[in-house]
Amino acid sequence: MVEFGEWLCEEVLKKVGHRQWVFSIPKRLRKYFMHDRKLLAKLSKFAWNVLSMYLKLGTTDDNAAPGAVIAVQTFGDDLNFNPHLHMVATDGCFDSNGNFMTGSEPDPKELEDAFNINFEYLKRE
């Protein structure tokens, strides 16, 4: 784990501010992820789409691009099945020239609302 973290810092992540995000799944939905592990990939894409959209809202550049690394974890502290995502994302976005624009202080409630709205849309498709 330490070597992976060092590699990320030295080779992958740009020297800009980052923030860790954790997306968890309610207990009553976890059984679906246990029996269909492909849902974890879909959850990763979905969570990234929502977080990316949220980070872009704090910029004025239409081509703004945040960056992130996502790790899926399927166990909790007690080694029980607890699928969730750990994301290390830039604390802002890169503009079309590659310059970094620091985002505003995130509001977890806004992100939760965006996640719920997009999840409702996803269920209808």
The number of E-state strands comes to 5
Spatial order of the strands forming the largest sheet: 1-3-2
CATH topology label: GMP Synthetase, Chain A, domain 3
Tally of helical runs: 4
Tally of individual domains: 1
Mean pLDDT over all positions: 86
N-to-C CA distance:
38 Å
Summarize the main sheet.
3 strands, antiparallel
Structural class: alpha+beta
Helix share, percent: 40-55%
One letter per element, helices H and strands E, the order comes to HEHHEEEEH
Overall CATH class: Alpha Beta
Strand content: 15-25%
- Radius of gyration, CA atoms, in whole angstroms: 16 Å
CATH architecture: 2-Layer Sandwich
Q: Uncertain segments of ≥5 residues (pLDDT<50)?
A: none
Shape by Cα distribution: globular
Would you write up a description of this structure?
This protein is an alpha+beta fold and 125 residues long. The protein has a single domain (2-124), classed as GMP Synthetase, Chain A, domain 3 (2-Layer Sandwich). The chain contains four helices and five strands. The strands form two sheets. A three-stranded antiparallel β-sheet has the order 1-3-2. A hairpin with a 5-residue loop joins strand 2 (68-75) and strand 3. Helix 3 (38-57) crosses helix 4 (108-124).
